[in-house]
Amino acid sequence: MSSGGPTGERLTISVSPMVKKVMDGFKISRAVRIGDWLFTNGQMDIGDNAKTLNPDDMLAQSVTCMRSIYEVVARADCRLAELAQVQIFYLADAIEDETAYLQQILEEFPECRDVLMILTPVPSFATLGHVVEIDAIAVKGDRSKAKDAAGVTVGVRRGDWVFAEARSNTGAGDALSGLRQTLAGLEAFLDDACRVYAYYGAEIGAEERRAMETELASAFEKSKPAIHATLLPENRNSGCKIALEVIANANQNIQRRRFGGAYAPHGNESWPFSNVVRCGEAVFASGQFPADATGEITHPGDIAEQARIAMRALCNALGQVGAKMSDLAKIKTYYRGAWDKENWFNNLRARMELLSDPGPASSGIEGLPPVDGDALLSVDGVAILGHQLSR
Questions:
Q1: Does 42 have pLDDT greater than 70?
Q2: pTM tops 0.85, yes or no
Q3: What is the C-alpha to C-alpha distance for residues 341 and 337, in angstroms, rounded to an integer?
């Protein structure tokens, strides 16, 4: 179980040399393991020439990505039983039935039946032919799980760390109720939350979204977790209005420190979420925006410059808890795009300027726009503090 003390050496697993040849100064790792934690980057079905394999074949690409995660787990000297969360970002119109698709994946990879499998639709990827990207988190510790009425895993616990998801077709209240129930089954509470992801259905109006944001603010007023929010594509099959993901720590004795205020939508002065949270050895930074000191989004239309500002904000957030960019284990970016590889190259180059080499694992999700209409991207991060040895 996580003790909150020194976490051991840092192991980085590099991406293919062929991938690095595509871009000078590539500073993103395929996976990073520090102590109890393992984070992978977004695994994709890419050949040695950095070209898409099995173009437009959802199942074939998914199997390749999952096998890649299994390989990374083995190379990091972890066990499959330590997998806590697998997130599948898929092209929204590539799956007609999420339940049937997930069942296919679990039949092929039965070890994941007790893992939190999160399915998140996106409207596009940077390159034609890609229809899925999958990343994962593993944590050492005693295992338990929570399942819904259909037998689907909706929450897991690894040691003191708890991962849970809830969705609602009606609003935030139902999603929060589902989260509370799942967390309770794992001996945790909303007040234990360290990180929240909020995904809003793009079809809902601004007034309805603000009402849901108010409900979230009330629910997390005490825990003040880090937060990162985005808008889902309009062409979803499920009609989900809101999806919530939570990472919590159920150890009431572990040290928790919260600093600053997260970027507040619509300048909401009562927004309770923290800019950065440290819980034991883990540091969670909220979604960072390309905003100036007044909260105004700067450099409209320039995604590279906005990326630089967001990354500087991430660096400053980590500094609030005594962490550095070299401590980052994972970054996640939501950015605007539509099958535009050059757009991806431009913002990725800018994002990597402040990263250390070999850098953290990363998932860059195209087409999931930040909640602020003028922002072209937002970036969050997870750092694990401890002794480091990269190789």
A1: yes
A2: yes
A3: 9
